Amino acid sequence: MRVALALLLVVASAAAAPLDDLARKAAAGSAEAKAQIERQAKAGDTYAEHLMGMMHVSGKGAEQSDVQALEWFLRAARKGHADSQHNAAVIYERTEGSLKDPAEARRWVRAAAEQGLARSQAKLGALLLDGVGGAANLDDGRDWLEKAAAQSEPYARYRLGMLYLEGRGYERNVGTAVKLFQQAAEGGDREARYRLALLHGTGNGVEKSDEKALAWLRKSADQGLPEAEFLLSAIYSTGQYGVQRDDRQAVRWMRRAAVQGYADAEFSLGLAYAEGRGVKKDAQEAYGWMLRASRRGHGPAIAYVKEIQSLRDKKRQPRD
């Protein structure tokens, strides 16, 4: 599974500028620029090692490969390069298969967090809250989030907002939660934007406004949050929030969520193909999407797949 990283291009010193220029040329297709970076990386230049990881994880300037990206990030991370430590942690956390290692994710993100990297502090706080890579620890998780939020890190503000909204680690305070969501959303956090959409849709702690709910939802969906994409799909399917019903648009957003492995979207896309709603009717496509959703434990999809398999088995039985 390809990892989508919000990678950091932090120029640590004036000496990094020539390498950044080479990286831009490599991304534009210059094999010589890529070769120059690789030569410096193999000679042990820490920033060049980091850039090799960047190119491999993004597929810009080098073959897309999470495996090779991780190798280069780790070379720089072991020398204390904070951005590489963070990116190695994200690969360990988000990949599937042999690279996935939540414990290593927590270890490397802690190393970067202890150097003061706000995004790493926010990520470490989230891992501690969620019990990813080790035991859950609400107090430590909250402390790391507060450190990141003090640096105006949007995701940390979002997660702190959720703690206030849920009354975990703090006394429940919807007003404080909304303030943090607003700050996080304005800072570009897609989950905070989705949460604000939900709150404006219900009027919980904020003005009830279909217009504002839809605006925040679109921003979140445009950033690729599956939950937002799927909800926007449902809005187009039913014509809510002043949106004209449009089955084709519904399928478009549904598909965007489905290809990210969002089970409800996979199931709904299967139904769309089964019924010919927004797409050309296609029983094979319907079954394929239902099968994907069923493998994620989606109950209705499991029932659908069993029914189709039962019908197929009956057709295979010899007649008397």
Portion in strands: under 5%
Largest sheet: none
- Assign an overall shape: globular
End-to-end distance: 48 Å
Structural class: mainly alpha
Helix amount = 55-70%
Q: Which runs of at least 5 residues are low in confidence (pLDDT < 50)? A: 1-14
Instruction: Compute the number of strand runs.
Output: 0
Number of helices: 17
Give me the strand/helix succession: HHHHHHHHHHHHHHHHH
Mean pLDDT: 93
Return Rg in Å.
Answer: 23 Å
Labels describing this entry:
320 residues
Model description:
The protein has 17 helices and no strands. By secondary structure, the chain is an all-alpha fold. The N and C termini lie far apart (48 Å).
Q: What secondary-structure arrangement, pairings included, does this model have?
A:
Elements: H1 17-27, H2 31-42, H3 46-58, H4 66-77, H5 82-94, H6 102-113, H7 118-130, H8 138-149, H9 154-166, H10 174-186, H11 190-202, H12 210-222, H13 226-238, H14 247-258, H15 263-275, H16 283-294, H17 299-316
